[in-house]
Amino acid sequence: MNAPFPLSAETVSQVDLRDPSEIARIESFVAEMGGTVFHRPKWLRAIERGTGQKAAGLVAEKCGSLTGWLPLNEVHSPLFGRALVSSGFAVGGGPLVSNSKTAERLCLAAEELAMRKSCSEVELRGGDAPAHWRSWEDSHCGFVRDLAVDDETQLADIPRKQRAEIRKSLALDLEVSVGSGESDCAAHYAVYCESVRNLGTPVFPRALFDAVLDEFGDHADILTIRHEGVPIASVLSLYHGGDVLPYWGGGIFAARQLRANERMYFELMLHARKKGCERFDFGRSKTGSGPFSYKKNWGFEPEPLRYSSWTAPGQAPRNINPNNDAYSAKIDIWKRLPLPIANFVGPLISKGLA
């Protein structure tokens, strides 16, 4: 009698994200597995539309059913080289699987895909990676906290010192608006451009924000704080799986004195709860940085994030960390650039900073 054998082995293949039925199948799998917004094909497509960094991905399946999914953006830059990133311009991603064997198969397939596409590196922002990959948990932390049941409790749940700053902002003549129309987008981009220039960072192209808003529809919007009609703080947020993610936000210099950022995040908490959200995902911050401390001041507890990478034999790892000493002089110069120049040159550089 012959020994029993499995009817079908698990296979890994590259997915066609131009196929609506394939997209629907993966979207269902992401929802079923409780994946992040950065696992969604919508995110990959928005990145491709907004920056030109091609959407890709690998699926594992058995007997016709998905068992794993690795979202990828094929990032190419004259300054920063070529890489497959899971996921591009995201703080999350990596293999979405039910077991480590499937994750390993997806990662090994990603190595082969990277070699075929002349990419020197594969980067995972979350998930399991093979033992021969480099992994670390000491660079960034995430900050997530439950939203309160009502406005009063939400304010009371914030630690005393930060709560005092919010109370000061509530006493000021600040206007709050939420939307995704042209005026909202224009106000957000103007504020964001100035904010990141002041931090010494090249701004992303506005096409990226427009693409994200278009792809996510009612699951993305912009909240803006104005003083005397002038936008001074603004944030583009995503809504996914009961979470609100204030993803791209900032304020101009006047925002600090007017506590506009404090008002912005507090108003977003109230707005998100009315949309049915249960958690506030404050995003990631570099461990020990100023933003890291700022989020702790709001009562959020840091959770280390696991990242991994594989570098092709004979190649040097990509270095896009703005906190690296090699970039410190460039950052200081960028902070002094006139805003029109920074806004013109920034998007050309930032497309490769996925």
From TrEMBL:
Pfam families: Acetyltransf_6 (PF13480). Residues 163-296 form the BioF2-like acetyltransferase domain. It comes from the Bacteria. InterPro entries: Acyl_CoA_acyltransferase, BioF2-like_GNAT_dom, PEP-CTERM_FemAB-rel, PG_Glycine_Bridge_Synth. This is FemAB family PEP-CTERM system-associated protein. It comes from Pontixanthobacter gangjinensis.
